[in-house]
Amino acid sequence: MLLTPYGIKEWLIASIIAAAISVGLALLGWWWAIIVPALVWLAVLAFFRDPWRRVPDNTPDGLFISPADGCVSSVETVEHHQVTDGPAIVIRIFLSVLNVHVNRSPSKLEVLDINYSPGKFHDARSEKCPIENESNLITLRTSSGETVGVRQIAGKLARRIVCKISPGDKLELGQKFGMIKFGSSTELILPRPDDVKVHVSVGQKVRGGLSPLAMLKPLSQEDS
Length: 224
Description:
Blueprint: H1 8-27, H2 35-47, E1 63-65, E2 70-81, E3 86-95, E4 102-104, E5 109-117, H3 129-132, E6 135-141, E7 147-154, E8 161-163, E9 170-171, E10 176-180, E11 184-191, E12 196-198, E13 205-206, E14 212-216
Antiparallel strand pairs: 1-14, 2-3, 2-13, 3-11, 4-10, 5-6, 5-9, 6-7, 7-11, 8-10, 12-14
């Protein structure tokens, strides 16, 4: 099982604690009880798993794949979003503690800005979560010069957002750039709602770096 380097601190802490408890139980002769710390240790490792994936090649211009594993919890059109400076479509993905939590770039993009916002820790399935929770908004630019966004949103258990990119970085399709630890949501924000064809529906399961989420119609020369 491949593990993400974003969780190295947690691996070490879990390993040290599990080893210490197991030694103590062994000294007491409670060999049967060692299974408990062993299962907890395996659960921590499973959360930070990072399975190998073959990111699709030769995707058409304007196709955006999922930035996260999970279940589509919302597809909505908003009249104004700070990323697009106008109308936008927001596709939100809920990640349970059982999902892979590594975030991936939904297309070939350039990082323009990263805006971290402190906040609360409502359950990721709550209506208050995308409004009030701690979040990290990443503004990105497409090859045609349009701005799109990915937002990492903390959940009830998530207390740390990891984002290992900086303004000016250029991301490849499916490139890993961070994660949210222990339950969360991830949003994809696209401009020009009338020119977006959404490929998913609420309740559908998606996989980061693999599942097509939406197609954004390329700008014509007249529009650009």
